[in-house]
Structures are given as C-alpha cells and as structure tokens.
Amino acid sequence: MTDAKTLPLDQWHRGHGARMVPFAGYEMPIQYEGIMAEHLWTRESAGLFDVSHMGQVELWGEGAAEALEAIVPGDISALKPGRIRYTLLLNEGGGIVDDLMVTNVGDHLYLVVNGATKAGDLDFLQAHLPGGIEIRHLESQALLALQGPKAADALARLDITALSGDGSTPGDLYFMQGGGFDWDGVAIGVSRSGYTGEDGFEISVPGDAVEKLATALAEQPEVKPIGLGARDSLRLEAGLPLYGHDIDEDTTPIAADLGFSISKKRREDGDFHGAERILQERESGSIAKRVGLVIEGRQPVREGAPVLNANGDAVGKVTSGGFAPSLQKPIAMAYVPTASAEPGTEITVEQRGKLFTGIVTPMPFVPHHYHRPPKA
Predict the structure, then answer these.
(1) Buried/exposed code over 43-75 (b: 16+ C-beta within 10 A; e: otherwise)
(2) What is the mean pLDDT of the segment spanning 196-224?
C-alpha cells in the first residue's frame, strides 16, 4: 500500500498503459512503452509530460518582486511582463533551498517550484516575505509539459488564442516568455520553457479540464505521453540539475555551476541571502564544482558513487548518472574539486568496488534547442 496522492490524470495515465510509481508524494507514470523509446521520441517529435506534482504559487501585493529579491539572486524587479526567469531560493548561508521559475504576469508573480519541496518552499516564503505579500498556492491547477521539436506544430492545431485579444498564439512566444490564453473557453497559462533542453511549452490548466487537454494533445500525430524515466534522462543530457540530487541546501550557486542566475545588478547590490559567501566564491572559486562526466565503457555510474583522488580518498561524488540514449554512452553529473573541473580532466569514480574513468565534459551533453528570437 502507498499513501501517495493521485494526480488529476491518474486514470488517464493508467488507461494509456503507464507504469505508476511513487514520486514526490504522488503516484506518477514512470514509463509507458519504455524509457529509451520515449526519450528518443521526445528528441525527434513531441512528448507530453504530466508535471502536476510541481508547486504553482502566486505572489500578490505591492513590492512583491523586491521582497522576493531578498531571498533569490535573480533580478526579479527588472523582469518585464510576460517574461520568465530561472532563479534560486537561498537560505541565509547561501545554500539552495530550491530552484524555481518566476514569471511576471503583470499584476502579480507566478512561481513554479519543485514538487518534492513545495510544502517547505511555501513555509520558507511565508517566513521570509513581509506580511503585505499574499502567497497563493494554486492547488487546483494541473501542469502539462509538451516538449520536442514538433511541439509547436502539435499545439498550433488546438486553436489557442491570447486572453488579451491581440490574436497571438503560444507559437508566437519565444523561450522564457509566457502569457494567458484561452482554449475552448478555458483560461490557461502557457510558457515556452521546459526541462528537456528541447523547444516546448508548459501549460497550467485547471485540474477539472486537464484530461480534456491531455487527450486533445495526445491525439496529435506528433505527440506521445512520456513518463518520469525519460524526463530524467532528457534533463541529464541537457545538463539540468535535479533538486535534492544535484543541488541542495548544502550547495551554493557557484559550486552548482549556476552562477549565471546572479545578475550583474544583484552582484553589485549584494543584498540577497548568502551574498557575502556567494560573491566571495565567485571571485575565489568554491571548494568543489558540479561538472559533467562522460564515463568510459558502457556501464553507467549512479548517484552516490564516490569520486577518488590519486590516493584513493573520496573527494567528491556522483549526483546523477545514467545511460544517455541520444549519445549511446553513459554520462553523469558529479561534484569534483574545482582544481579538477577543467574539461578533459580524467576523474576516477568507484562503484561497488569497481573503478571507472570519467572525462570532465562541458554541459549540456546534448545541445539545447530552445526557440529564441532571431539575432539582429
């Protein structure tokens, strides 16, 4: 027996042949026809993911962006309406409480946080934001992700138009843009974003309408439902960290190789949680750094496998690892001493008494294919 909650699409998943497993407190689909096939389908066509376990949160009130900036290093107050920013919730010591996406909706902020951490994130926001900021947890909203090079073609057939009445569609969005849309009389939020490295969309939809939308999407010839297994292998190839594995409260943005999330203005102001430590690490380097590894041979190394120095002492560890279907070789993310983080460096990893050689490799392992504006 399991105490896991069910998603609004639980029966829909089972009807499509999903194998369900507990994840982040929910029964979720791990795979349908097989992780390898689903992974490659998403890279070549379009995959439909149910990510309704994620936390969807709104922040309302004057000064919400400035208030949020006290606990994240991103420049939220400069975010224009309809724009999205990846940022990090930070504790007072500069450790990562969670990573999240923030959208300026116009009259409020919309946040998407990780499913396994959303309860703690809500408590953290409540504890650190001033009383004048209202925090709304959108528990009745579901969240779908349509990812892959043919995602825009499939979505275009659903006759989705902007709530603003300007005639725009989700296809007019570029990467890290979002807005409110109407689909068949249902108000939905659509962003051009995702967790696979491919072009794609994330769609916030009322829970009582999500089955109808999922069915309409899955009926498109480019689209197949995809499970958590392929979502994990896709994000690993894309070099994207998974909270609780590759990043956590003991990890700083610099060690996690997420320094890009700290804008120049926020670096200059230095007025966010853990700024002194983080900015010092940015100048002098952190003790360890998250890197990508290509593992020699065919056997993957898994999370927790120690990284060894020349004397056989553990000096780091693997945080994610698996076989990369797109590359047909094993890859991993690991924390290694910063002195060993240069691309091309050979790293020794131990797993079950066996030694493996990993080559430090720039991430992403597979190039991103985000839909960006044309260069001027």
Answers:
(1) bebbbbbbbbbbbbbbbeeeebbebbbebbbbb
(2) 98
Q: CATH code at 150? A: 3.30.1360.120
Looking at every residue in the chain, the average pLDDT score rounds to 97
pLDDT at residue 81 tops 50: yes
What domain count does the chain have?
A: 2
Global pTM value: 0.97
- Regarding whether 232 and 149 lie in a shared domain, the answer is yes
Query: Residue 362 carries which DSSP code?
Result: -
Q: In this structure, is residue 67 part of a structural domain? A: no
CATH number at residue 322: 2.40.30.110
Q: State yes or no: pLDDT of 2 exceeds 70.
A: no
Sequence-ordered list of residues with C-beta below 8 angstroms from that of 291, at least 6 positions apart, any chain: 257, 333, 334, 335, 336, 341, 360, 361, 363
Question: Which residues on adjacent β-strands are paired with residue 116?
Answer: none
Instruction: List pLDDT tens digits, range 180-195.
Output: 999 999 999 999 999 9
Q: Are residues 232 and 310 in the same domain?
A: no
Q: How far apart are CA 303 and CA 321, in angstroms?
A: 6
For 255, the 3-state DSSP assignment is coil
CA quadruple 184, 187, 190, 196: dihedral, nearest 10? -80
Instruction: Looking at the structure, tell me whether residues 198 and 294 fall in a common domain.
Output: no
